[in-house]
Automatic annotation (TrEMBL):
Protein name as catalogued: SAM domain-containing protein
Domain SAM span(s) in chain numbering: 51-91
Database matches in Pfam families: SAM_1
Skewed-composition ranges (Basic and acidic residues): 1-11
InterPro entries for the chain: SAM, SAM/pointed_sf
Residue stretches spanning the membrane: none
Annotated spans, Disordered: 1-42
Length: 118
């Protein structure tokens, strides 16, 4: 244990005089979940945060870096994707189908009705 640096998230607990002091780690507060709609409002519209939030709501947030890296940085752009675009980015086939089904629900979706199904 480094005597010169102590983590900020610890506090000392002294039990009885003459006994050693021990440190108890205080856990950080849990993150507050934020919906894609609130994220979109926070950044002033449809953008990267909307894409990240939308993927998170699908349970597929692990693909957010790939979407942004390949230039799919707005829901408007994402709505124009095809299933091949997802596979090119390395999205697993089952996940690509899940995303593609939800893409058809976005306004301006390629081959979809923007609120309708496949």
């Amino acid at each position: 244990m480094d005597a010169y640096k102590t983590p900020r998230d610890t506090r000392s607990v002294v039990s009885t005089p003459g006994r050693s002091t021990r440190k108890i780690r205080t856990p950080p507060p849990p993150p507050t979940p934020v919906s894609a709609t609130k994220q979109r409002e926070a950044v002033g519209g449809d953008g990267e945060w909307a894409v990240v939030g939308w993927l998170g709501e699908l349970g597929l947030g692990q693909y957010a870096p790939a979407f942004l890296e390949h230039g799919w940085d707005s829901l408007e752009a994402v709505a124009a994707m095809g299933e091949d675009d997802l596979l090119i980015m390395g999205v697993k086939a089952g996940h690509a189908r899940k995303i593609f089904r939800r893409l058809s629900m976005l306004p301006g979706a390629k081959g979809g009705k923007g609120g309708g199904g496949e």
